[in-house]
Amino acid sequence: MLQSSRQPMPAESVDPDHKAFLDDYVGRLHRATAIDDGIFARISATRASWLRTREQGGRVIFIGNGGSAGIASHLAIDLAKNASVPALCFSDASMMSCLANDYGFEDWIAHAVRLNARAGDCLVAISSSGRSKNILNAVAQARTMKLGVITLSGMNADNPLRSLGDVNFWVDSRSYNIVETTHQFWMMAAIDLVIGRAEYPAS
Fold first, then answer.
1. Under a CB-based contact definition with an 8 Å cutoff, are residues 86 and 80 in contact?
2. Cα(203)–Cα(48) distance, rounded to whole angstroms?
3. What is the pLDDT of residues 12-62, one digit of tens each?
4. Distances (CA, A) of 100 to 48, 106, 109, 134, 167
5. Would you report the helix, strand and coil content of the chain in percent, each value rounded to 5?
6. Could you tell me the strand order of the sheet in which 148-153 lies?
7. pLDDT for 80-112, tens place per residue?
8. What does DSSP assign to residue 56?
9. Helix, strand, or coil here: 147?
10. Cβ contacts of residue 34 below 8 Å, gap of 6+?
11. Where are the alpha helices (DSSP H) in 84-129?
12. Which of 132, 124, 123 is nearest to 160 (CA)?
């Protein structure tokens, strides 16, 4: 039998400064993702909104910028594939560049909503700061079309997005990565609540 020539990696000592940073970082994440009755209620309300959307023949539309756009794409495919709730996000580069070129970056998502949304749809608007103009304008467009709206924001408690949804999630953190991680965690919890299980096969 051939013996591996690779030697096990020696145990590495942890730099005290790195450990202090990571202890603080993980503590911040734990505090941000801590679940209380208010968050339980919002996750449950999100589940109810998505199921109602499906029953009405609608779709859940996820929107965001940057990291939040990546989260939007992940949530849309998981909600559709794993929870059988029709969902989409506006990730097509041609559509984005066309609408941004014609209407400006602050209004391209609003026009994507105008062109693609229909009665019975639900918009999930994700913005870490809660101040992104194109997200706020898209929510305003969704309201004119009488769509359901769920918002996810963070940073300042008085950000404008936080008050615009039927269900509003807010992360008490000024760290973009912690806010985005918490948004994804809460929405994944809502998806798994629709499914009714925390563990299931990928296919």
1. yes
2. 25
3. 788 999 999 999 999 999 999 998 999 999 999 999 999 999 999 999 999
4. 33, 8, 8, 10, 28
5. 55, 10, 35
6. 87-89, 60-63, 122-126, 148-153, 167-170
7. 999 999 999 999 999 999 999 999 999 999 999
8. T
9. coil
10. none
11. 93-103, 108-116
12. 132
If you compute the radius of gyration of the chain from its CA atoms, what whole number of angstroms results?
A: 20
DSSP 8-state code for residue 171: -
Query: CA 94, CA 98: separation in Å to the nearest integer?
Result: 6
The C-alpha atoms of residue 130 and residue 162 are separated, in whole angstroms, by 7
- As given in the structure block, the two tokens for residue 20 are 């202090």
Locate 38 and state its tokens: 């208010």
DSSP code, position 124: E
Longest dimension (CA), the chain: 71
The CA-CA-CA angle for residues 128, 193, 174, to 5°, reads: 15
Q: Record the tokens describing residue 78, joined without a space.
A: 């998981």
Written as one letter, the residue type at 44 is S
